[in-house]
Automatic annotation (TrEMBL):
The chain crosses the membrane at residues 7-30, 36-56, 63-82, 88-109, 154-171, 214-242. It catalyses: [protein]-C-terminal S-[(2E,6E)-farnesyl]-L-cysteine + S-adenosyl-L-methionine = [protein]-C-terminal S-[(2E,6E)-farnesyl]-L-cysteine methyl ester + S-adenosyl-L-homocysteine. GO terms for biological process: methylation. One of its GO terms (molecular function) is protein C-terminal S-isoprenylcysteine carboxyl O-methyltransferase activity. The lineage of its organism: Eukaryota, Metazoa, Ecdysozoa, Arthropoda, Hexapoda. This is Protein-S-isoprenylcysteine O-methyltransferase. It is an enzyme of class 2 (transferase). It is a multi-pass membrane protein. Belongs to the class VI-like SAM-binding methyltransferase superfamily. Isoprenylcysteine carboxyl methyltransferase family. It comes from Dendroctonus ponderosae (Mountain pine beetle). Catalyzes the post-translational methylation of isoprenylated C-terminal cysteine residues.
Amino acid sequence: MTSHKQIAITHFVVSFILFSITCALNYVYTILSFDLTTLICLQSLVIIITFIGAHIGEDKISIPCRASMLGGLFALGIYINFATSPHLRVFGIYLSVMAFFHFSEFIAIAMIQPNQVTANSFVLNHSPQYNIAAVTSWVEFFLEAYFFPDLKEHFYVSYLGLVMCIAGEFLRKLAMLTAGRNFNHLVQSEKASDHVLVTDGVYSFFRHPSYVGWFYWAIGTQIILLNPLCIPAYAAVSWIFFNSRIYIEEITLLNFFGQSYVNYQKVVRTGLPFIKGYEI
């Protein structure tokens, strides 16, 4: 039987290839001009498709659908970066970064917990707040691209955001793979029989490396978009979210591992600025 990981990879790659061919033909024959209006329409379509896909209950349908959508968006992002007006190109980088992040989330879970992976492992429907934050950043980008196009052409700053996203993505996935079966997208209230405290590898530097990676990845997406309002907003909101999340998670970890986790807290920091977690 074909695994969910194989299905997702196949649909992502095939969709990427088909979209790439379509984009190449469009570049040669200029069937569709990628101006600001076109991008807004495409992004609205993405929101609608994502919303529908997030509410398809059957994994055998929703997993290939979401993987295909992400593969297409990854290709479209590359095309936008190379073939549109200068003030819109950074949105292409952002689109590819977002598509790859959500696809790699699924693949990482499929690798470490193949029996637990579902369509929700793409984390496309992470939370209403996450979706609102994403839409807000799009609104800011398109408004500023329309009224202040020069603002979106500081590419060296955008590339700095790309580096942050790549580093954050790498750190998060490394943390997930290091934790293995001990990793879960949701805070667990009961300790599994095979759950162990991971303190080696990247966990010897940070207690919560997956959150550290996600935190800087999120800020990096807004630096890519050159969004002066969303950059500090994302930093503040992400800090509040992870501060609360780590506090709650460490209560459960102290219950699970007792003195072993207390000793771990004493020698390894959380990894996020000014976040100490729950301490006894």
